[in-house]
Amino acid sequence: MAANQKADNRAKERAEMLRQIEAEVLETAHWLAKDKLDPRVMAAMAEVPRHAFVPRMEDAYAYRNEPLPIGLGQTISQPYIVAVMTDQAGVGPGSRVLEIGTGSGYQAAVLAALGCEVWSIEALPELAEEAARRLKAAGYAKVHCRQGDGARGWPEAAPFDAVLVTAAATSIPPALIDQLKPGGRLILPVGAPDGVLRRNASQRLLRIEKGHDGGLTETVILPVAFVPLVSPPQD
Ligand code: SAH
């Protein structure tokens, strides 16, 4: 198949993925308290080549609205979840965003496509290396990657407009609150790592907003099922 035909097919698949995200946003509008996501977030989702972030074996499924395995028991999140988390972060061009759990690098690429500068931490060295290489090759120069324990945050680059955690915590890591700007938002799944069916999951995706007086406001966004936060191997 000619390269431009392939690119064309990918663009079509991506457009279909966007329709599925829109449909799921409508289905979950009662949770999200909105029936449409920020158009800038949807434009970023339309731009990032998800197929460049999934293992070759999963290539045919790259644009399904589903999580996919990326090795070492980890997953690239479902596109709908990536869109919702990005939307909930309330960020845009020029925002400084910390991501915990680089995984495939896809969520970081979506934030970068939105115009954010991104600091992303991955616990597992193999995934950290691969994601950094992939993001660089795809031209995402505004994503800074490092391997380590995300629960400690990235103090040298703090404070952040938003922090996104893409693995489930059993409690809220205090460092991540400390590293938020006043007015900043922490988006994270909290709960036991037992959820398989998302609608039945015991985890909740939370939005925690730091007020200008330093006070915290917590909002439940959605029931979710994320892989658990782990301790990096050498820590
Ligand atoms: N955001 C990813 C999804 C990753 S799944 C994407 O877009 O593909 C969650 C990731 O969090 C896994 O890669 C896992 O290894 C990583 N992780 C788990 N615990 C962590 C920790 N304490 N610090 C940093 N990363 C962690």
Short description:
With 235 residues, the protein is an alpha/beta fold. The protein has a single domain, classed as Vaccinia Virus protein VP39 (Rossmann fold), CATH 3.40.50. The protein has a seven-stranded mixed β-sheet with strand order 5-4-3-6-7-8-9. Strands 1-2 form a two-stranded antiparallel sheet.
Provide an overview of this structure.
The protein is an alpha/beta fold and 235 residues long. It has one domain (2-224): 3-Layer(aba) Sandwich (Rossmann fold). The chain is 32% helix and 24% strand. It has helices at residues 3-27, 29-32, 39-47, 79-89, 106-113, 125-137, 174-178, and strands at 68-71, 74-76, 96-100, 117-122, 143-147, 160-165, 180-190, 203-210, 216-224. A 7-stranded mixed β-sheet has the order 5-4-3-6-7-8-9. Strands 1-2 form a two-stranded antiparallel ribbon. Helix 1 crosses helix 4 (79-89). The longest helix has 25 residues, at 3-27. It is globular. The model has no long low-confidence stretch (mean pLDDT 94). S-adenosyl-L-homocysteine is lined by residues 74-77, 100-101, 103-104, 106-107, 121-124, 127, 149-151, 166-167, 227, 229-230.
Shape: globular
Domain module count: 1
Weakly predicted, low-confidence segments: none
The SSE string, one letter per element, is HHHEEHEHEHEEHEEE
Number of distinct helices = 7
CATH topology, by name, is Rossmann fold
Q: Give a quick account of the main beta sheet: strands, pairing sense, barrel closure.
A: 7 strands, mixed
Helix fraction bin: 25-40%
Average pLDDT: 94
In the CATH hierarchy, what is the architecture at level 2?
A: 3-Layer(aba) Sandwich
Radius of gyration: 17 Å
